[in-house]
């Protein structure tokens, strides 16, 4: 992954924002309509949490009635933020350290987008069409040398530092051994 690529270049600028009093069912419908993985929970303009697919699924095993559950009932508190001008490699490192699949991109403390693990993978696996002279050149003709070894395992979805190409998929150590 090129260290020149910034969060701003790959983030999704139109993100789903909800408030704590919104119903989970309506929020999930909105996520599905928008094709989004998560919703940023806002109190005014301040991000206070996130609602992910996993948070919504937690209703299945809880005593809370899904029809009346609010975002506040199931959201994850806190939002891990990253400045939009940070390198994408920093976002990948933060995701790995924090064990999350998305970060809120901010400019001057204002939310401006969401960067997901999927965004990191897509950006890290893209091979430039032509040498523009902006990045390091590979001294080998091996196409695998064009890729960084950090990213999301295509078999299990985990963020890993040691991906290898196995049968056309980038997989982590655990999936490689299975």
From TrEMBL:
<dbReference type="InterPro" id="IPR051257">
    <property type="entry name" value="Diverse_CBS-Domain"/>
</dbReference>
<dbReference type="Pfam" id="PF00571">
    <property type="entry name" value="CBS"/>
</dbReference>
<protein>
    <submittedName>
        <fullName>Signal transduction protein with CBS domains</fullName>
    </submittedName>
</protein>
<feature type="domain" description="CBS">
    <location>
        <begin position="14"/>
        <end position="61"/>
    </location>
</feature>
<feature type="domain" description="CBS">
    <location>
        <begin position="78"/>
        <end position="125"/>
    </location>
</feature>
<dbReference type="InterPro" id="IPR000644">
    <property type="entry name" value="CBS_dom"/>
</dbReference>
<keyword id="KW-0129">CBS domain</keyword>
<dbReference type="InterPro" id="IPR046342">
    <property type="entry name" value="CBS_dom_sf"/>
</dbReference>
């Amino acid at each position: 992954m090129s260290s020149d690529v910034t969060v701003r270049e790959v983030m999704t600028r139109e993100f789903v924002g909800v408030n704590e009093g919104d119903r989970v069912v309506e929020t999930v419908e909105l996520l599905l309509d928008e094709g989004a993985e998560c919703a940023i929970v806002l109190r005014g303009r301040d991000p206070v949490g996130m609602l992910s697919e996993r948070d919504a699924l937690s209703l299945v095993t809880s005593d809370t009635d899904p029809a009346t559950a609010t975002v506040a009932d199931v959201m994850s508190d806190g939002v891990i933020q990253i400045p939009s001008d940070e390198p994408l490699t920093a976002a990948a490192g933060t995701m790995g350290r924090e064990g999350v699949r998305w970060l809120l991109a901010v400019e001057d403390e204002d939310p401006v987008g969401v960067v997901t693990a999927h965004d990191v993978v897509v950006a890290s696996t893209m091979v430039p069409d032509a040498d523009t002279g902006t990045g390091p050149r590979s001294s080998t003709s091996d196409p695998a040398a064009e890729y960084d070894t950090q990213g999301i395992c295509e078999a299990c979805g985990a963020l890993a530092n040691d991906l290898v190409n196995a049968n056309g998929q980038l997989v982590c150590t655990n999936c490689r051994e299975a």
